[in-house]
Specification:
Helix content is about 55%, strand content about 10%. It is α+β, with helices and mostly antiparallel strands. Strand 9 (about 270-275) and strand 10 form a beta hairpin.
Length: about 425
């Protein structure tokens, strides 16, 4: 297996994947752009160390990412670009071995599967009458994985001792914080290409147990939802599955964030559902709030930038956001967001025009009658109020923003829905 792992074809594919994913530097400060040249110059030394079992991965660089819910942070560990390439090479060799055995109910970080599939499956369970959800939250999952249990699972399929040694070294490479390296005796730090596969290997044992018990469930990484018919059944399932997770897997369930509730009162992968017998997929309230906060930041009138730059930044964010949330059966939400975004841009432009004479001149150039241009150009009303006035809505209509490069969320949503 080590020979396959270190083959030219496998390493070249891993290098291309790391370069495509870009990402920031590790503790050595080396950028992705420098990786290819570094490998050309140092590969023989690196390969020899791996083959002799003396290769020592660098510690990961600790990065804190605020969680969408606020108040807490997600701890990421960013490996060096060299270690990212080697981890990617390991993942490419291990995935064909492990992925075929994984549960049909597991959707996270797997080939040809994604979060949308998990949400659709959850909706199917609701349509079948399973209208209570056991929403389980694993507390600091990536920081608590037991290394010995994980290595035992990997060794069931991987017999090459040098590959096993390399994987364990990555698990124990340590974390650098404030210039100090802290050892890692448990956990699989989020941030490396190998971590998602290792997490699925750990949680496959949970999937198999839930299947054996006949439960209807969907799991995406450490997000696990089980669907039942009554609240009483849900409480019973929650208690028994929690016991299994904590005693067998040596992981901890966060009781404060876990619950038995109606699916439309919870969120799953950024989505929620309607109460209908034929449930509709909705965008979760928290997901909308997060998007609105980002749009407010980009369209803040206190943020000094050219309108074309503002529109470009807005488009870059909205394209990815719309692609993900186009699964939702809620065109009205995209329509309302479109309208709100245009109003915020009108507010920015109105402030940008500054002087009354500039405002009058701009309104006239946009076809506003002379008397109205003079009246509104000299008004003392506030920016936000003016942004929704009929005069500015006519002057800066939908066509104006389209001509200036603003993408319509509703148009993009409709095209994505038609395409799928």
């Amino acid at each position: 297996m080590l020979e396959h792992l270190l083959s030219r074809e496998n390493l070249l594919e891993a290098l291309k994947r790391v370069e495509a994913n870009k990402g920031s530097h590790g503790v050595d400060g080396m950028s992705v752009k420098s990786l290819r040249e570094h490998i050309k110059q140092n590969w023989q030394t690196i390969r020899q160390a791996i083959e002799e079992g003396t290769y020592q991965p660098s510690p990961v660089r600790r990065v804190e990412i605020p969680k969408p819910s606020g108040g807490d942070v997600r701890l990421l560990g960013v490996p060096t670009v060299t270690d990212r390439m080697l981890q990617q090479a390991i993942a490419q060799v291990l995935t064909p071995l492990f992925d075929p055995q994984f549960s049909e109910h597991s959707y996270g970080f797997r080939p040809k599967r994604r979060g949308h599939d998990a949400v659709r499956k959850a909706r199917e369970f609701m349509k079948e009458g399973y209208r209570f959800v056991v929403d389980l939250d694993l507390e600091k999952f990536f920081d608590r994985v037991n290394h010995d249990r994980l290595m035992m699972k990997i060794s069931e399929k991987v017999k090459d001792k040098k590959v096993l040694l390399l994987i364990r070294k990555y698990l124990q490479s340590g974390v650098m914080e404030d210039g100090m390296v802290k050892p890692t005796s448990e956990g699989t730090p989020q941030g490396g290409p190998l971590s998602p596969l290792l997490s699925n290997i750990v949680l496959d044992e949970l999937d198999k147990e839930l299947e054996k018990r006949g439960h209807r469930f969907v799991r995406y990484a450490d997000d696990c939802n089980l669907y039942v018919k009554t609240k009483r059944a849900g409480e019973r399932v929650k208690a028994s599955v929690t016991r299994f997770i904590e005693t067998r897997l040596k992981l901890k369930v966060n009781q404060a964030k876990s619950a038995v509730d109606r699916p439309w009162k919870r969120k799953f992968l950024g989505f929620s559902f309607s109460v209908n017998k034929e449930p509709k997929v909705r965008i979760a309230k928290q997901s909308l709030q997060k998007a609105e906060a980002k749009i407010r930041e980009i369209t803040s009138r206190r943020k000094s930038m050219k309108m074309e730059e503002r529109i470009k930044e807005l488009n870059q964010y909205l394209i990815g956001w719309c692609r993900y949330f186009s699964l939702a059966d809620t065109p009205i939400v995209f329509q309302r967001l479109d309208s709100w975004i245009r109003r915020r841009l009108r507010m920015c432009l109105w402030k940008q025009w500054k002087l009354p004479k500039t405002k009058v001149k701009r309104l006239l150039s946009l076809g506003t009658p002379k008397d109205k241009a003079f009246e509104w150009g000299n008004t003392r009303k506030g920016y936000w109020r003016i942004a929704s006035s009929p005069i500015l809505q006519r002057a800066l209509d939908n066509q104006y923003w389209k001509t200036n490069g603003l993408n319509s969320l509703l148009d993009r949503y409709n095209s994505l829905r038609n395409f799928s």
